[in-house]
Amino acid sequence: MNKLKKYYKDAKEELLKVIFPIKEQIRSAYLSVFVVVTVISLFLALIDAIMSLSLSALIN
Questions:
Q1: What is the mean pLDDT of residues 24-34?
Q2: pLDDT band at 51 (very low <50, low <70, confident <90, very high)
Q3: Where are the beta strands (DSSP E) in the chain?
């Protein structure tokens, strides 16, 4: 039982050390991820379109 109490106490102490991000940091991180994913998606769509067109031209 003492081990369980010590574990709970240690876990609570560690949680007090955690610094949670503020709303502006979360918003800027979300925006950054959204922009990067959008750019990469558009790039891959462009590469796919180019390869599709070149393959269909090669087949015909």
A1: 97
A2: very high
A3: none
Task: Give per-residue burial for 25-38: e unless 16+ CB within 10 Å, then b.
Answer: eeeeeeeeeeeeee
Q: Flag whether 8 is in a domain.
A: no
Residue 24 is part of which domain span?
19-60
Tell me if 41 is assigned to some domain. Answer: yes
> Mapping DSSP to helix (H, G, I), strand (E, B) and coil, where does residue 21 land?
coil
Q: Identify the band that residue 1 occupies on the pLDDT scale cut at 50, 70 and 90.
A: confident
Residue 39 counted as domain residue:
yes
**What global pTM score does this model have?**
0.65
For residue 26, being part of any structural domain is answered with yes
